[in-house]
């Protein structure tokens, strides 16, 4: 022996790793639940209420637009938290998991709605703020994209609550 001490990296006990994994899965489920709840609350409770309560439809639309903008950013943050650990651990396998693909699909719909379709909705307004000839069409496209994003996220929540892709984790 040369008098050197062997230095080994500390390892976590399997129990500690399992406990950390369990805490992460619970946190993931909470974030997923809050995200899906916010999508449905903003899109199908708050926005319609604005148009029902406010006399000024333009103002209601502006407020709803700001809420959808915030919802898109919230969705990007939540999706990052939901997806990052799986994608870092094994990108190829995680990317093709059904739940992860649904989260990505939901975020793509929301981002496309916000930064692709919303400018077209805004551009279809007339100078006086009233709806132009293409406003209803672009608004319908945006609403359809939001519905698909909401349904995709709801499906992820339903699958995670019923065991869906959890066996692949």
Written overview of the protein:
The structure is a single chain. The chain has a domain at 68-168. By secondary structure, the protein is mainly alpha-helical. It has five helices and no strands. The mean pLDDT is 87. The protein has helices at residues 14-53, 57-89, 91-95, 98-123, 135-161. Helix content is 78%, strand content 0%.
Using the alpha-carbon principal axes, give the shape.
elongated
Compute the number of helices.
5
Largest beta-sheet characterization = none
User: Which blocks of ≥5 consecutive residues have pLDDT under 50?
Assistant: none
* Fraction of residues in H or I helices: over 70%
Strand content: under 5%
Q: Alpha-carbon distance between the termini? A: 44 Å
The class by helix and strand makeup works out as: mainly alpha
Chain oligomer state: single chain
């Amino acid at each position: 022996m040369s008098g050197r001490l062997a230095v080994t990296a500390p390892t976590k006990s399997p129990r500690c790793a399992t406990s950390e994994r369990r805490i992460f899965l619970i946190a993931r489920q909470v974030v997923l639940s809050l995200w899906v709840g916010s999508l449905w609350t903003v899109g199908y409770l708050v926005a319609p209420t604005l148009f029902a309560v406010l006399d000024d439809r333009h103002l209601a639309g502006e407020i709803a637009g700001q809420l959808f903008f915030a919802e898109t950013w919230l969705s990007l943050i939540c999706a990052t938290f939901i997806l990052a650990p799986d994608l870092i651990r094994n990108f190829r396998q995680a990317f093709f998991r059904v739940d992860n693909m649904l989260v990505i699909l939901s975020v793509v719909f929301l981002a496309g709605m916000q930064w692709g379709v919303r400018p077209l909705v805004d551009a279809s307004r007339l100078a006086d703020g009233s709806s132009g000839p293409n406003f209803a069409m672009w608004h319908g496209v945006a609403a359809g994209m939001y519905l698909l994003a909401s349904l995709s996220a709801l499906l992820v929540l339903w699958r995670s609550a019923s065991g869906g892709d959890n066996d692949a984790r």
